[in-house]
């Protein structure tokens, strides 16, 4: 069935109207599609009624399928196999040579348009072939670019791990230094408390020892880390 001719309002609009199949995306249709998919998860557009076929995305075109865009026919490229992907980057002289050939072809095209416009078609076809060749050469750099990007990311990750390991070692050294100073402070306090052994009870001596040790610990922490006030 042919589509109805566009109205004059649609032609004169500043922006084109949305495609008509947007009207199919209603809550009722979505609920119906969900029920059908529960019974058959591998549902395709051919298995649906006409009013629900727009709710499923179309299948991708097969390799080599031709389509038109901007009044130009294109072919869906065939994905290369793993063996066809080059392991080394292409020769940079190829890209430079193709670029120079493009400049020469462009100058030749402008000369043809200025002197004999009827002979522009062969020059234009030559430029299109050169552009396709340059595009293919640039695509050969993709695997090499992906490898270099991955190497750069891994090097950054290793450098980050080294900095974190260095920070942990420095923190461990500070903790060991604090514990060593606390231990030395405890050995210095014990003789002072032993002089007053006969004057105070054992509980009082233990309390005084803990108070002095805690004060010493906080002094060392404040010295190493900074004041908390």
Detailed description of the structure:
The chain is flat. The protein is mainly alpha-helical. The model has no long low-confidence stretch (mean pLDDT 77). The N and C termini lie far apart (82 Å). Helix 3 packs antiparallel against helix 4. It contains six helices and two strands.
Low-pLDDT windows of residues = none
Q: How large is the radius of gyration?
A: 40 Å
Count of discrete alpha- or pi-helical segments spanning 4 or more residues: 6
Order of helices and strands: HHEEHHHH
- Strand coverage percent: under 5%
Beta strands, count = 2
What multimeric state do the chains show?
single chain
Sheet of most strands: 2 strands, antiparallel
Shape: flat
User: How would you write the strand order of the largest sheet?
Assistant: 1-2
SSE layout and pairings?
Layout: H1 8-12, H2 27-39, E1 66-69, E2 72-75, H3 92-115, H4 120-139, H5 141-195, H6 202-224
Antiparallel strand pairs: 1-2
Helix pairs in contact: 3-4, 5-6
Defining traits:
mainly alpha; single chain; two-stranded antiparallel ribbon; 229 residues; 6 helices
In short:
This protein has 229 residues and is mainly alpha-helical. 61% of the residues lie in helices and 3% in strands. A two-stranded antiparallel ribbon has the order 1-2.
């Amino acid at each position: 069935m042919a589509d109805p001719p566009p109205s004059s309002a649609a032609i004169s609009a500043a922006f084109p109207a949305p495609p008509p199949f947007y009207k199919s995306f209603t809550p009722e249709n979505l609920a119906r599609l969900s029920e059908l998919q529960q019974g058959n998860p591998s549902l395709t557009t051919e298995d649906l009624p006409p009013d629900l076929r727009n709710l499923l995305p179309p299948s991708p075109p097969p390799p080599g399928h031709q389509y038109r865009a901007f009044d130009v026919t294109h072919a869906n490229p065939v994905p290369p196999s793993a063996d066809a992907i080059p392991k080394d980057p292409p020769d940079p002289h190829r890209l430079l040579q193709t670029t120079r050939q493009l400049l020469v072809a462009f100058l030749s095209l402008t000369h043809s348009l200025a002197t004999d416009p009827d002979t522009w078609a062969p020059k234009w076809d030559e430029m299109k072939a050169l552009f396709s060749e340059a595009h293919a050469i640039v695509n050969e750099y993709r695997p090499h670019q992906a490898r270099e990007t991955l190497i750069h990311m891994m090097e950054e990750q290793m450098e980050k791990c080294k900095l974190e390991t260095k920070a942990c070692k420095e923190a461990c050294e500070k903790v060991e230094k604090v514990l060593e100073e606390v231990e030395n402070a405890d050995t210095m306090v014990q003789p002072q408390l032993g002089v007053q052994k006969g004057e105070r009870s054992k509980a009082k001596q233990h309390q005084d020892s803990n108070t002095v040790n805690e004060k010493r610990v906080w002094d060392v922490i404040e010295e190493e880390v900074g004041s908390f006030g």
